[in-house]
Design brief:
Layout: H1 36-50, H2 72-82, E1 101-105, H3 106-111, H4 118-125, H5 129-145, E2 152-154, E3 161-165, E4 171-178, E5 183-189, E6 193-205, E7 209-215, E8 218-222, E9 227-231, E10 235-239, E11 247-258, E12 264-269, E13 281-287, E14 293-300, E15 304-309, E16 320-324, H6 338-345, H7 349-354, H8 371-377, H9 381-404, E17 414-419, E18 423-428, H10 431-453
Parallel strand pairs: 1-2
Antiparallel strand pairs: 3-4, 4-5, 5-6, 6-7, 6-8, 7-10, 8-9, 9-11, 10-11, 11-12, 12-13, 13-14, 14-15, 15-16, 17-18
Helix pairs in contact: 1-2, 4-5, 8-9
């Protein structure tokens, strides 16, 4: 999931205009960058403020510190813009320069855990109910193992969608259903499961770090067993936004509940301590409906999760690897895995025909077709900055028009409905896939008509 909230280290500029916009950030007309003198002065102030003139951190989980940071001066200048927002939620208060972004949107990031969707298929086939829950716990490690990049994804436009129809046998659809607060909802379906993810993003800026609080309820239905699971989110901290090597830490406690059997998993992600102590560590246990421990779990969320069954007499069995991270050599300059390159950002000729489109910069469309995303991917930072600004202006105009007509935004594919257990659920109406087939059918008929007329 990239850093769902990272801050990045590629050029555009920023100003202090705090005007709201419905694309997730205030108006940011391209402007000149902070001068070297201003950056140096602010840099000195920041070091003095944090008392780190002579601090040397040996291990933070980021880069080894030996490589020069090409964006060091830009990051120093960034503090001038962010300093007035210390202690505040900066999700939509401040406009960030394009160089802190990566060429994906948050909706695309929501799909990245599906690199490990095979573990959900294993859960669906597992005869032991406690190990099924262990596999769902393993998926959580896979989910957070993908959220290590430190650039910021683009905020989706209101109503933006993103799809994947994967050769692995699943289809994924996401929609940005709210702007304030920013909420994205997705549903993935295969022959084995239905997975629904919800992310409502809130942040708090602390100077050299930013803490991210994700709200929302995630749901999983295993088709062969008829079981329903749910869980929430961890907290994430992005460290060294201004000074040092950027790195992310996921920490907190996840409770995964099997609502069919009454079993639950308590999974604890350790907070990284001083000099990296405890980083990546995960421990947990699976309890039956009578709160008796049935499985012990331990591992590292960036590498593996092991499970050991607990016998009736309390004897702990041998460890079994439930989930293991893929050892992939990353060659993409943005740090994207092959899954992101091939299934998240890639556009094939057939996919080009299947995706929903709107005249640029009207939007919303599929995230792959965003002009700012495409230009950033190509390295055109000035063009990406201008495209982002134009899209935001259109969104602001659309919002003003709705306000003048006293109209509320209506979601297209996901509807929020009351639920006796969870208070609410996002219900997918299935219309996206119907419309997709209609687009492909129309494209095929158009091609055949052209061939007949030749």
């Amino acid at each position: 999931m990239s850093s769902w909230f990272g801050w990045g280290s590629s050029s555009s500029t920023t100003n202090n205009n705090n005007q709201e916009n419905t694309a997730g950030e205030p108006s940011n007309t391209p402007s000149s960058s902070t001068t070297t003198t201003e950056s140096a002065g602010m840099w000195g102030y920041m070091k003095g403020l944090l008392g780190i003139e002579s601090l040397k951190v040996e291990e933070t989980g980021g880069d080894d510190g030996k490589k020069p940071d090409p964006d060091a001066e830009k990051r120093k200048g960034l503090f001038k813009t962010l300093s007035s927002f210390i202690g505040k939620d900066v999700t939509s208060l401040v406009s960030l320069p394009v160089w802190v972004f990566e060429p994906v949107s948050f909706l695309q990031v929501m799909s990245e855990p599906l690199q490990y969707e095979d573990i959900l298929k294993k859960a669906a086939k597992e005869p032991n109910q406690y190990l099924r829950l262990a596999y769902v716990a393993g998926f959580q490690c896979g989910l957070y193992s993908t959220a290590i990049r430190t650039r910021k994804p683009f905020n989706p436009l209101l109503g933006e969608t993103f799809e994947i129809v994967s050769p692995r046998g699943f289809k994924f659809i996401a929609e940005q259903v709210s702007h304030h607060p920013p909420i994205g909802v997705s549903e993935t379906e295969s022959d084995s499961y239905i997975l629904q993810l919800e992310t409502e993003i809130h942040t708090k800026f602390y100077g050299n770090s930013s803490e991210v609080y994700l709200h929302g309820i995630n749901h999983l239905d295993l088709k062969p067993t008829g079981e329903h699971f749910s869980w929430g989110h961890l907290h994430t901290v992005c460290h060294n936004i201004i000074i040092g090597s950027l790195w992310l830490d996921h920490h907190g406690e996840l409770e995964i509940t099997n609502h069919t059997t009454g079993d639950k998993c308590i999974l604890k992600f350790s907070k990284c301590g001083w000099l990296g102590v405890g980083r990546y560590q995960v421990t947990g246990e699976i309890l039956d409906k009578n709160n008796k421990t049935r499985v012990k779990l331990h591992g590292h969320w960036n590498d593996h999760l092991k499970a050991a069954l607990v016998a009736e007499d309390g004897t702990v069995g041998e460890d079994v690897i439930i989930w293991e991270a893929r050892k992939e050599v990353i060659t993409n300059r943005f740090g994207f895995t092959k899954f992101v390159e091939e299934e998240v950002n890639n556009i094939t000729p057939e996919l080009q025909l299947a995706l929903p489109k709107a005249p640029y910069p009207m939007g919303p469309t599929d995230s792959r077709l965003r002009e700012d995303r495409r230009l950033l991917e190509e390295g055109d930072l000035d063009g990406a900055s201008k495209a982002k600004y134009q899209m935001e202006e259109v969104q602001r105009a659309q919002r003003r028009d709705r306000e003048a007509k006293t109209e509320e935004w209506e979601t297209k594919y996901f509807k929020k409905v009351d639920d006796p257990t969870f208070q609410y659920r996002w219900k997918f109406n299935g219309n996206y896939w119907v419309e997709r087939e209609e687009r492909l059918k129309a494209a095929k008929e158009s091609k055949e008509t052209k061939q007949d007329n030749q």
